[in-house]
Amino acid sequence: MVDLFAAHARLLESAVAAARGRGFWAAFPENPKAYPEGGAAEAKAAFAALRGHPLELATGDDAPLVGAEVSPFGAALGVTYRARTVDDLIARAEKAGAGWAAASIAQRTGIALEILGRLNAASFLIAEAVEHTTGQAGPMAFQAGGPHAQDRGLEAVAYAYEEMSRVPGAVLWEKPQGRSAIRLDKDFHVVPRGIGLVIGCATFPTWNSYPALFADLVTGNAVIVKPHPAAILPLALTLRIAREVLSEEGFDPDVVQLAPDTPEAPIAKELATHPAVGIVDFTGSSEFGGWLRENAKDRLVFTEEAGVNTIVVASTAAFGPMCQNIAFSLSLYSGQMCTAPQVIFVPAGGIETEAGHKSFEEVATGIAAAIDALLSEPARAAAVLGAIQNPATLARIDQARSLGRIVRDSAALKVEGARTATPLLLAVDAADEAAYLEERFGPIAFVVAVADAADGVARATRAAREKGAITAALYSTDEAEIARAVPAYARAGVPLSVNLTGGIYVNQSAAFSDYHVSGANPAGNACLTDAAFVAGRFRVVCVRRPAAA
Amino acid sequence: MVDLFAAHARLLESAVAAARGRGFWAAFPENPKAYPEGGAAEAKAAFAALRGHPLELATGDDAPLVGAEVSPFGAALGVTYRARTVDDLIARAEKAGAGWAAASIAQRTGIALEILGRLNAASFLIAEAVEHTTGQAGPMAFQAGGPHAQDRGLEAVAYAYEEMSRVPGAVLWEKPQGRSAIRLDKDFHVVPRGIGLVIGCATFPTWNSYPALFADLVTGNAVIVKPHPAAILPLALTLRIAREVLSEEGFDPDVVQLAPDTPEAPIAKELATHPAVGIVDFTGSSEFGGWLRENAKDRLVFTEEAGVNTIVVASTAAFGPMCQNIAFSLSLYSGQMCTAPQVIFVPAGGIETEAGHKSFEEVATGIAAAIDALLSEPARAAAVLGAIQNPATLARIDQARSLGRIVRDSAALKVEGARTATPLLLAVDAADEAAYLEERFGPIAFVVAVADAADGVARATRAAREKGAITAALYSTDEAEIARAVPAYARAGVPLSVNLTGGIYVNQSAAFSDYHVSGANPAGNACLTDAAFVAGRFRVVCVRRPAAA
Which CATH class is domain B310-498? Predict the structure, then answer.
């Protein structure tokens, strides 16, 4: 049998170094051209073959079949999955978990790295699954659903491995006592916390689940993955690969289990409060996140919930590129990223730019015009916007039209069968907090007139503290103003992007460098990935006895 | 001004290395003879001078005075303390906390190390305070209340410093993009979680509070210390020193505040649920620990609660030394340590020893006789037992007498004015779980007849899983039996001591080596000290912007 830890040792070493350095690094190339030719076409065929059939993760499983995924681009997927009862899932996790807990850290780490490698090889197929469940356009589904998600998973492996490695396996404890010494042999055992429950979301089923899945696995916990009913397939394919590797390495594949459910009979609450579950990771609504934080106590609970992301436009030396940058951030995946901005604070009296003074109205229409330009080509528009994952988002756009003065209206793309919408941009006054300070998920954004830049920063950071925020941006040519703003954003626990133009956007969060969600405001208590994300997933138990003389 | 970080850099380096190696290491000598001559006498005088007066931590404070500590060795202390309102405490913590959060990691760490050094120099005085609040005998009050507590605090500083140090201050992120690159300057800000609340206990006010106090401080959180009403003075003296150092270094001394209360008007619940409090550390009853875990949600909550510690006597090659070792563990500080054993499982059919077979009865009476021998000298008895901290413990001993057959009765020592009790040892059957599987805090222990060694291990590990346990011990000459037992104890999350005889006891938990409380069973969710104890006390916020070309 191949020693998987040795086989992947260099990858792990690089990942640990990258996680520590937090400069740019990626293990898995984001460019599809870096992958074998023909992979995309093969994946399309493989995806077509999956449609309309049960996806079996275990032989002889006769649990009832569930699954009603419908592509935001049109057709129902027709894939179904075995839905086991909570008791069955837990019993299998406990049984499989005993052997997994007894595996060495190196064994578990090697297996996790092997799974990541095979997931990478399956990136095109997983991208198809992500595209046709989330509505992400193809290029994003590949990058975010494939290599970027795998990098986030690898990052969690690196952190967890490093934290566990800091616990010595065995030491001689020798305490001087007068002329002699007391000598004890001590063995330190890394033990898992309990079953890990990972609750996936509908928009980034792999990117947001892999960190928890891999952190739990490497630290010795059996894992139950409860996907969103609208995005089961990407995680089912993920677990099919994980179970294959586990089986090949002699472990019970039920170390990882899929727990699909239906909107009519949800099981997340029952799972999250089962006494055998020790860790819950959740990405999704503040409502359910809040329920978990209230009810899943005595467990480690990691959440990424919702927030109101803001931009403050104070001044700029690149008005056009700024508007283009903001336009792209608002448009990308139709504003369905947890990192997408929703509020753009602009001084009511306008701003200074390299091309002279621009009024509030000129800033608002400048952003609107940049959105129009970005989406003027139908093919590019489709590639940027993707589709709307949830029909409720279209209804939300309709309702939002009355919340302010429409600067740019939302419209559907002319794409047959797909559910699409371009960004809605509204102008409101700073006092209209009821309009713009609620999270309005989807392509809905507000240009908000504030007294001045300082007022904008004060409102942006207060919103982050009170409503939560995952990203924030600031445009300013005044270094003193930036320096004053930085500590306010830091106190509000929201990462800040300053003066972004060109090919980098506030929405983007890079594995191994950006700490995604700070855990320091209501947008979530978890951070991808820091030591706190992994350190509590295992515990240390010491066995000590007198050392032989 | 002295650079405190530089001044203490070698100490920190050694502590970090020790925390990683987890062999024997101590920064602060436990032997009183290692301290300046006359220190003990001076401390007695200083302590006498404190009695009967208010202890002022701030000038001009006119908050009402509280405090009714009574020495378990006799007299009331007569020391009083300013009791501020919760709102006042929080407002001051927020004000002082802003400046503290803005201090550099090195500044905060240097100050924490300086405080620890001065606490060490004050060990004799703090020992007086510990002795006359907890009832610990003088030698233990010095060691556990002084250098051992300081080592635990230093350990937390080392862990917190190391975790924070892993976050780079600033990096250049350079992502290759075609022929050019996207370049971002990223600054990573370590930000505190929120105000830290440390709730002290009556038996080890410094040892159990210092890890949280120092972990909170170093990670940038202002700290409110709410001592047990029966043991305020040790923490008041601690904070007096901490506030002195903070002031000298130009910080608002309210970075650390004392929040004394009374049994009639307790404030812990109000403090723990105040929105500004981000971290709660608690040592004490399972009842209040459970309340905190239920109600202080959305905060980091670290608890050390209660459990039932067990010993399994399967066989031994050193019957006398084993009995002596157990006798000492039962007697030390009158069984009032969270690490003291309560249950001794012995096969009903007896055990094999180097001196042949010993019946169940012979094992029980062997331990009883060893207790008698240990406590036969009045001076030694007083030095081992100390006094009973809480009158309720005496009542508990009375009630316990009817729970089984008395093998050895508890009795008071003949010490004028002191509240004392020697260990009560009862024999019961394994079925009498209601008797021996409830925590009965104090010098109360049960010898429990089990079917055989395996039955004992099964019961001991089940008790740990279900009731919680902080320590466990096993005596066995059968290596295969030990090897089978180890994974069961590891799964139960309880550290195991095997075949201890001589000068090392199951009660002892050494800083930098033993992980005190695993966090993996109901005895507590915290561990002193692992990465999980410190990593969530701070968060990381990134500020990124395009790098200059």
Answer: alpha beta
Closest chain A CA to residue B25: A175
In order along its 549 residues, chain A shows pLDDT tens digits of 689 999 999 999 999 999 999 999 999 999 999 999 999 999 999 999 999 999 999 999 999 999 999 999 999 999 999 999 999 999 999 999 999 999 999 999 999 999 999 999 999 999 999 999 999 999 999 999 999 999 999 999 999 999 999 999 899 999 998 888 999 999 999 999 999 999 999 999 999 999 999 999 999 999 999 999 999 999 999 999 999 999 999 999 999 999 999 999 999 999 999 999 999 999 999 999 999 998 988 899 999 998 999 999 999 999 999 999 999 999 999 999 999 999 999 999 999 999 999 999 999 999 999 999 999 999 999 999 999 999 999 999 999 999 999 999 999 999 889 999 999 999 999 999 999 999 999 999 999 999 999 999 999 999 999 999 999 999 999 999 999 999 999 999 999 999 999 999 999 999 999 999 999 999 999 999 999 999 999 999 999 999 987
A293 contacts in chain B (CB < 8 Å): 297-298
SS3 category, B347: strand
- Contacts B184 to A, Cβ<8 Å: 504
Coil, strand or helix at B327? helix
Instruction: Provide the sign of the torsion angle of the four alpha carbons A323, A324, A328, A331, taken in this order.
Output: positive
Map out the domains of chain A as residue ranges. 4-305, 310-498
| Binary contact (A546, B499; C-beta < 8 A) | yes
Structure-token pair, residue B114: 């300086």
Size of interface A-B (CB pairs under 8 A): 199
Cα separation, B453 vs B310, whole angstroms: 13
Q: Mind telling me how many Å the CA of B204 is from chain A's nearest CA?
A: 22
- Which CATH fold topology does B14-165+190-304 show? Aldehyde Dehydrogenase; Chain A, domain 1 (3.40.605)
**Å from A137 to nearest chain B CA?**
21
Q: Tell me how far CA of residue B311 lies from CA of B326, B388, B471, B482, B494, in angstroms.
A: 9, 23, 9, 13, 12
Inter-residue contact B497 to B476 (CB < 8 Å)? no
The Cα A459–Cα A341 span in angstroms is 14
Partner residue opposite B515 with nearest CB, options A177, A297, A540? A540
In this complex, do B173 and A102 lie within 8 Å of one another by their Cβ atoms?
Answer: no
Q: Tokens 């056009």 correspond to what residue?
A: A320
On whether ipTM exceeds 0.85, the answer is: yes
- CATH fold for domain A4-305: Aldehyde Dehydrogenase; Chain A, domain 1 (3.40.605)
Nearest to B297 among A293, A519, A536 (CB): A293
> For residue A427, what is the DSSP state?
E
| A519, A535, A543: residue with CB nearest B539 | A519
Contact between B158 and B269 under an 8 Å Cβ cutoff? The reply is: no
For residue A272, the chain B residues in CB contact (below 8 A) are none
Instruction: Give the closest of A21, A500, A525 to B546, CB-based.
Output: A500
